[in-house]
Design brief:
Blueprint (H helix, E strand, L loop, with lengths): L17 H13 L4 H4 L3 H21 L22 H9 L1 H16 L15 H6 L3 H5 L2 H7 L16 E4 L14 E4 L1 H7 L6 H11 L3 H8 L7 H17 L3 E5 L2 E4 L4
Antiparallel strand pairs: 1-2, 3-4
Helix pairs in contact: 1-3
The structure holds zinc ion.
The site of zinc ion (ZN) has 8 residues, from helix 9.
């Protein structure tokens, strides 16, 4: 990652995780940087047993409580793992959400680690760096949203450009889905200040009046491969605001102003 100092991101505060150390050892031993070439080497086949054992004895064991084995029964037979029927069903049905929550959990674990502070700059998109980006998919909406919003930022009404950001009105952190009603075009300043917060009352009312019921808009975005669901978007917004209100969370009002939700 580019930054004031280059280096390897730490995933924990103590010593490096055993699996990473094993992987690094293989890479150094072979002198190959491209990991796709490492896994075709015979040394990889030998080391994979070490990695498997580490996963079994740590991740697999500690993922659930010993007394509540709801994902899989923990057996001494370490050659296979059988998910319970409910776990298999839920993993498949909610995979989209689970993957996103795991990614977010990983990012929010790595970002505040002091050892990473010299490497990560405030504006770095850590999620894209770690997991690749879906932004290309969103970026293709920009020309349409520029036209639909009369070249204006949804929030501050300043002129937007071709490089302006497609923003998730209900933040991605709360609702990780690219649903048509939730996508608005924002200038970079508003996008950065809003970050993963809900907005104040005025923005919410405009979103509910102008974006949510706009079928033509939703159809156009849906035609580019996005899901459209007005009722679901409304329920998600109600849920998000109700919870944020109960939690006394701050909402972004505009510019550098924030206030308690208090109106929901
Ligand atoms: Zn703006």
């Amino acid at each position: 990652m580019r930054g004031t100092t280059s280096g390897v991101l730490s995933q924990n505060k103590g010593k490096q995780a055993e699996i990473i150390t094993t992987l690094q050892g293989i890479q150094e031993q072979l002198g190959i940087n491209d990991f796709s070439k490492v896994i075709s080497h015979t040394l990889w086949q030998k080391k994979i047993n070490t990695i498997t054992r580490t996963i079994w004895e740590n991740h697999i064991f500690y993922l659930q409580e010993d007394s509540n084995q709801f994902l899989y029964p923990y057996t001494k037979n370490k050659s296979k793992l059988t998910l319970t029927a409910e776990a298999a069903y839920c993993l498949r049905k909610f995979s989209e959400y689970i993957i996103q929550y795991v990614k977010q959990g990983c990012v929010s674990h790595i970002k505040p680690n002091k050892q990473n502070q010299l490497i990560i700059r405030p504006k770095d998109d850590l999620e894209s760096f770690l997991f690749g980006s879906n932004r290309a998919k969103l970026t293709k909406l920009t020309p349409y949203l520029i036209e639909q919003q009369n070249c204006r930022c949804f929030y501050c009404k300043k002129l937007v450009t071709k490089t302006s950001d497609v923003d998730h009105f209900i933040p991605w952190k709360k609702y990780p889905r690219d649903i048509t009603q939730n996508l608005v075009l924002s200038c970079a300043a508003c996008n950065r200040r809003k970050s993963d917060m809900l907005t104040g009352k005025l923005h919410l009312e405009r979103w509910m009046q102008e974006i949510l019921p706009n079928e033509e808009r939703s159809t156009c975005i849906a035609n580019q491969g996005f899901i459209s669901d007005e009722a679901c978007s409304r329920r998600v917004a109600e849920w998000a605001y109700r919870h944020a209100d109960m939690a006394r969370s701050l909402a972004w009002v505009g510019r550098k102003d924030y206030s308690f939700i208090g109106f929901f």
